[in-house]
Amino acid sequence: MADKMLVTVSPHLHKKDETIQRAMKDVLIALTPAAVWALVVFGFNVVYILAVSCITAALSEVVMRKIMRRKPTLRDYSAMVTAVLFAFLLPPTTPLWVVAIGAFLAVGVGKELFGGLGKNIFNPAIFARVLLWFSPLAVYTTKFVKPFFWKASGFFTPIATSIHEGAVGRVVYKTLAGNPVADVTTAATPLSLLKSGKWLPDVVSGPTPVGATWVTSGGKPNFWSLFLGAKSGCIGEVCILALLIGGAYLLWRGTIDWRIPAGIIGTFFLLTLVTWHHPVYNLLSGGLFLGSFFMATDWVTSPVTRRGKWIFAVGIGATVFILRFWSLRPEGVALAIFLWNIGTLVIDRYIAVPKFGEVGAKVFNRLPVLPEPAPEPAKKQA
Amino acid sequence: MSGKATYKTFKGGIHPPYNKELASGKAIRPAPVPAEVFIPLQQHIGAPNEPLVNPGDRVELGQKVGSSEAFVSAPVHASVAGTVKEIAEVTGFTGAKVKCVVITPDAEQPEFARKDRDITALSDQEIRDIAREAGLVGMGGAAFPTHVKLTPPKDKPVDTVIINACECEPFLTCDHRVMLERPHDLVQGLKLLMRAVNAKRGIIGIEANKMDAVDAVRGAAKGEAGIEVEILEVKYPEGAEKMLIFALTGRKVPPGKLPSEVGCLVQNVGTAVALYEACAWGKPLYERVLTVTGQGIKEPANLLARVGTPISTLIEACGGFVGQPGKVIMGGPMTGWAQPDTSAPVVKGTSGIVVLTPELVDVGTEEECVRCGKCTDVCPMFLLPNFIVQAVKKGQWDRAEMWGALDCFECGCCSFTCPAYIPHVDYVRKAKAEIAALKRR
Questions:
Q1: What is the rounded CA–CA span in Å between residue B356 and residue A270?
Q2: CB distance from A16 to chain B under 8 Å?
């Protein structure tokens, strides 16, 4: 009768809609509020950067997998997530060719060269960002602009540096588009101001895009503009509110574990509080929220166990604290995550989780001693 | 994300789609007698039986047809009156060939002739002997001989007998129906179990999605000393032995140890009722209640089926398939065995036959592990299924053991929840076999 019955091992049920693809889509959805805000605050230039990042990432993945003869995986959306996250880590003035190089480093090198999704040691976006940081290209990724700078030059006007850094690019762009470009002046980020001993000044005065007036602060730090994102900084990191909305969505969907953002943000806040390093100002500045909710929670590069996640998160929080206040750079979230991505390997191998019913608190995993296998190896597993 | 945290439960676990409503309202009815019954000589964990009959012999209903001298073993009985056709190798539900006594039933089948006995006078040893003679095994699926379980080590006395009435496997409703229709027999069976191990306390643990069964059993247990009926949270695998003991008593069975380590004995609903039947009526275990269900079955039902009935007979008795079946599973969908055809005979441990439609079969393609950690979050034993898989792939058996391969009881929560569709249970079985082989040398 039935000639096409499927025989597989148990279990025969699978959780509905629990796929890698769904998780990646969730992250993309969660990043949308921050992307929309980036558009509002930094103008249409953001779209160019996102587009270049996504296209390069997709091409890198397809080509690299083709070369390495792996099956195509573009449909799992992981390349898109990496591309958007990478773009989010860049200042809005980054030249597009630097964006392209970075996106290739992220997906082509950081992910595919390590063996593809699941085998990568580093969060690909962080990997590329850190590589750019310590490369000669770093000069192109350090120019920040004032929020709403486009009100002077026009929303759709590209930023000069981003479109045609270099003479050739300038000629090509002028010939093809003929449009004027905005020559923006650079602005300091809240954290670089703090590094030089200053507060965030009244960055915005006058009407906002939604009509109200930003609360100005008169010599004091302006927490509202820090929280809502009226500040200079990297594309995706500025609006804490948008990141919290996205983070809440991911928590609700069960895509990320609350322990990691809670551990990072909590540790960092506590340390700044205890040492009185302007806790609230520091909390709301830089990439802490973007990193905690979207980068450190990356499945592949964070520890698997809950215990491990706590160690990882507290470690990142403490490392950010150290990097921000005792390194030459004002910001340290990406580097801290990069370092703890390595730590993940150690945590997963050595930090023990007691089994159900196991007596005595086991701290470290120890390898059991099994008899040696027979000389003719029985290993034929794929 | 449990809605009601008021009921007792364990840590970890999953909430699969239960689909119990397909068959939970169907009263138990007898299944038809097949044209031939195939009684496997080994239906239990332990030593196989030797046949006691020869081709051509006449057998009566309930006659012993296979037995063994070994302690860890359970005899098998004829489930029909008829003539032995042959002793043959037949493909069993696991796909392996098993030796079977093939019987051609008489056209007219007799009722079982009860030999009533006063159960209040039975001693512990008598109960164990009856259990063995009746061929009782755990009827939840593992089929471990009951008389062995009823013989705990001398230095580890059992003070609590637990009836596993969770029926946490999706789709299955046979225990639910037995509790509704025969609560008195269940309570009497529990009392016999308590007497056999000299325990003062008996607990019947029922999941909160069977409140009518709770009422029925509570009614039957009214006035019985030491018997409690507890409601448990609806979660899979609530009915796993160690999880159930923890949920009901707070005791944790250490890794690699048996429930007697913490003074507990767990038996399935069907086993308790079968023990009652064996003691009170002298009836051996030759038939059992099972659920034939799933969206791929025309009329889901709870059937009283004779051991040795081919699946096909039961499916016909339920109106046949709806369209093309996607998967036919013997047992529950979380731990059962997918069948290549419908020829395998029912055994004592068969709790159901679930027919999934092709749309419900969600096998996906196995991807690289993305280390999301969901498998470790749901693992009720707190193991690291994804690391076991990695170790098995590399042939690192010591690592597989370190990550807990030997402590896995193959509930399948990890695979259920894995976004990369990794069949962890399959890898774990491979690891168990390899580690056992290494340790034997």
A1: 53
A2: yes
